[in-house]
Structure formats: structure tokens, C-alpha cells
Design brief:
The complex is a heterodimer.
Chain A: H1 7-24, H2 37-48, H3 51-67, H4 75-91, H5 99-123, H6 130-155
Helix pairs in contact in A: 1-2, 1-3, 2-3, 2-4, 2-5, 2-6, 3-4, 4-5, 5-6
Chain B: H1 3-40, H2 42-59, H3 61-99, E1 108-117, E2 125-128, E3 141-143, E4 148-155, E5 160-164, E6 171-176, E7 182-187, E8 193-199, E9 209-212, E10 224-233, E11 239-246, E12 255-260
Antiparallel strand pairs in B: 1-2, 1-12, 2-5, 3-4, 3-12, 4-5, 6-7, 6-9, 7-8, 8-11, 9-10, 10-11
Classes of the chains: A mainly alpha, B alpha+beta.
């Protein structure tokens, strides 16, 4: 699988998806929640590539996300490699061949990612209504996980 | 104890610590790298935005046609209102001259197109196609055609990032146009804004217009922020809040005006 999935194509896909999310992401909202295509690609990279390349791709994705964000520190550059590290550790304990398991892992990764960002926002004194918080931490991961089989199918 | 195993464990620890600190340093360099990288991405973003606009024009032809008709009617009504306001302005000028009041010079604006939006759930920002090259600097106020839209947070040579008023990280000192009660407007990441720290006995009602108070030098006084939808009492019971519908349609923002001081 690793031979088939060219690293160069994966890198270009990450860049194209980053631009796509910035340009057209607002057309694909579900009750205001966004899907996180880049996070799906990070998890896919963790499953299909070896640890070194998976971490490189997650770092690259984090840089791309931070480019378009307004956070002071490179949050995504730190968070996404952390998520990749966890997925790699998990892949050594359980088999990740089945699509359902992969979708669950993507959901868990998206949940953890959004929860951490939400908590960090709160810690900086930024408060959002509870409805928005639930939308971002629950609905957005569900939406991301629901979309992921399409990307997994495309990769396969 | 196996000395080889101990040596291996120490080696792994050193390797892990080196990677961890490298990541921290790299993440710290992100703010410096962001600005030049955005300049590089200007042309792909502009091209993609152009393609998107053309596709939109085809897909949403009927919607645009109807909207155009409604806007034409609105233009007519606004022209009449503008005439009335011009008269009021002239009268105000005459009276101010009489009272020898100092008039603030009108501000210069620069039009810019929105070419992208943040892909973040926890922030509300847009990317515009003007930057340092056109005189835009960090901290400049950004307007939509109907009122306040946000503020420039980063500016590269040809691209800038604007934090919208519905971002919870942005707070604007505001007041009720009718009763002049002051408060602080912040975003909620949703379609509405919240005006807080209104005194319990403040005179604020639904349909009241909210404008910038001018208390801070950043936002000129009198910029329209939105309209009050409902009011309520804070959980503490010590102050009131108001839910505000922004004057600018932030979800469909396509063009903005940047105030150049």
C-alpha cells in the first residue's frame, strides 16, 4: 500500500485540501460545524506510512493549518504530531485494517483535537456559548468521521 | 542489569527529548514564517477564489437574479435616505461651525475582496487580497458595506487576515445609539454577537441600533455594529446582556473596506 501511495502525491493532496478548506469550506457546513479533511489525512498518513513519514506529514499539515489560523503559537504544529504519535502507538496494539475501526479512530482523533482546542480557548479567557462548544467538540468530529469513509475509499 | 539495554533506553530518551524540543522551537518560529508563506500562497488562493466565483455565478444564477432585483429596490430607498442624511449633515456642519466644535477628518477606505476563510472551528477569520503593498497594517478596522466587519490581525505584502466581529477573541467597545448606554460587544462564533456589562437599569430594547462608542482609538465612533434582538440578565444578576444581529452578513462577506488612518 505504501508503494502505491506516493509520498509526493500525498503531500500535494494535503496542500490542495488546505486550500480547498479555506476557499470552499463554508459551503460544506453541517449546522455550522466544519469537517476537518486535513485531520482525516493526518490519521490516514499515520495508518499507511511508517512513523517517520507519518510524523513529517502531520508536521506539514500542522504548519498548513497554522498558516491560516490567527493563534499566536503554532498550536496545530504541536497537536497534530501528538495525534499521529497516539495513532501509531494504537496501531501497534490493535489491527486497523477494517474501515469501521479507522472511522472510529478518526472520530476519536477529531474529538480529542477539538476538545483540546476548546479547552485552550477557555484557558485564554475566550468564552463561547455552550451550544457552540458542543457543536465544535461533538458535532464537528461526528461530521468529520462521517465524511472519512469517502476519503478512505479514495485512498484505497 | 543489562548495560546494553540501559544504553539503548538512554539513547531513546535523548532522541525523544531532542525531537520534542525541536518541535517546540519550530512551533515558536511559526508566527515569523506565516507572513512570507501567505505571500507565496496569494496567487493560488486568488485563482481558486476566481474559479469559485464563476461557478457560483452559474449555479446560483436564479438566486442572484432575484437578489439583484431586491437590491435594486433597496438602492432606490437608500438613495432617498442618503439625501435626507446629506441635508442633516449640512445642517450639523453649520451648527458645529457656529459652536466652534472640532470636526474629525473623514477617514480613507480601501476596498478588498475576500479570497478565503479560516478552516478553524474555533476562530472566525477571512483572508483579503490586499496587504502592506496597499497600505494595510495590523490593527486596521475593516468594514462591510453595512457596518463593522472586523479588524486586520496580520498583513503580508499582498494578503491580510481579518478577524471578524463574531470571533470571541475580538471585543469592541459599543453603545446603544438611542440611549447612549455603553457595553462591550464580543463574538460567539455563531451568527449573533453579545453585548455585555450593561448596567441593570440600562435603557436597551429589541430593535435598538448598536454602534461603536469611540472610547478606544482603534474603532472610529459611530460605526454600525448591529441591531438588538433580545436582552436578558446575566447569571450573576449584576448586569444585563443583549443578543445582537450583526449589520454585516458575515457568512456571505465578499468585499470589505479597510479604514486607512
Amino acid at each position: 500500500m505504501q508503494n502505491k501511495l506516493s509520498k509526493r502525491i500525498f503531500l500535494l493532496t494535503l496542500t490542495a485540501l488546505a486550500i480547498f478548506e479555506v476557499i470552499a469550506g463554508e459551503y460544506f457546513l453541517l449546522c455550522g460545524a466544519r469537517m476537518d479533511l486535513l485531520l482525516i489525512m493526518v490519521v490516514i498518513g499515520s495508518i499507511y506510512f511508517d512513523a517517520k513519514w507519518a510524523l513529517f506529514f502531520s508536521l506539514f499539515t500542522g504548519l498548513l493549518k497554522d498558516l491560516f489560523s490567527t493563534d499566536i503559537f503554532g498550536l496545530n504544529t504541536l497537536l497534530l504530531p501528538g495525534i499521529t504519535f497516539l495513532v501509531i502507538k494504537l496501531s501497534r496494539k490493535i489491527i486497523l485494517e477494517h474501515t469501521v475501526i479507522r472511522v472510529v479512530i478518526i472520530f476519536a482523533a477529531a474529538l480529542l483535537y477539538n476538545l483540546l482546542l476548546g479547552i485552550l480557548s477557555f484557558s485564554r479567557g475566550i468564552s463561547v456559548p455552550w451550544g457552540i462548544f458542543v457543536r465544535n467538540t461533538v458535532l464537528s468530529p461526528i461530521y468529520t468521521a462521517a465524511i472519512s469513509p469517502l476519503l478512505l475509499k479514495a485512498i484505497e | 542489569m543489562n548495560p546494553r539495554l540501559d544504553k539503548l533506553k538512554n539513547k531513546n530518551l535523548v532522541y525523544f527529548l531532542a525531537v520534542f524540543f525541536s518541535l517546540i522551537i519550530l512551533a515558536g518560529l511559526i508566527p515569523a514564517l506565516r507572513v512570507p508563506a501567505l505571500s507565496i500562497l496569494k496567487y493560488p488562493l486568488r485563482l481558486a477564489s476566481l474559479i469559485k466565483r464563476e461557478v457560483n455565478g452559474i449555479i446560483f444564477y436564479h438566486r442572484n437574479f432575484i437578489r439583484n432585483e431586491l437590491l435594486q429596490k433597496e438602492i432606490g430607498l437608500l438613495r432617498q435616505k442618503l439625501n435626507t442624511l446629506n441635508e442633516a449633515e449640512l445642517e450639523n456642519k453649520r451648527l458645529s461651525d457656529l459652536l466652534s466644535l472640532k470636526q474629525r477628518a473623514p477617514y480613507k477606505v480601501l476596498a478588498a475582496k475576500v479570497i478565503g476563510r479560516s478552516a478553524d472551528n474555533w476562530a472566525s477569520t477571512v483572508i483579503i487580497d490586499q496587504g502592506h503593498h496597499s497600505g494595510i497594517r495590523r490593527g486596521m478596522v475593516v468594514l462591510g458595506f453595512a457596518g463593522l466587519a472586523g479588524r486586520v490581525t496580520e498583513a503580508s505584502s499582498f494578503i491580510s487576515k481579518v478577524m471578524l466581529i463574531n470571533d470571541p477573541d475580538l471585543a469592541v467597545s459599543a453603545m446603544v445609539q438611542r440611549s447612549r448606554w455603553q457595553g462591550l460587544v464580543t463574538g460567539t462564533l455563531g451568527n449573533y454577537l453579545v453585548m455585555r456589562y450593561l448596567p441593570k437599569d440600562s435603557d436597551i430594547q429589541p430593535a435598538d441600533s448598536i454602534i461603536t462608542s469611540g472610547l478606544t482609538e482603534t474603532y472610529p465612533k459611530g460605526l454600525c455594529i448591529g441591531e438588538v434582538l433580545e436582552t436578558g440578565e446575566e447569571f450573576s444578576g449584576l448586569s444585563r446582556y443583549a443578543i445582537i444581529r450583526p449589520a454585516v452578513e458575515l457568512a456571505v462577506l465578499e468585499e470589505v473596506l479597510v479604514i486607512i488612518p
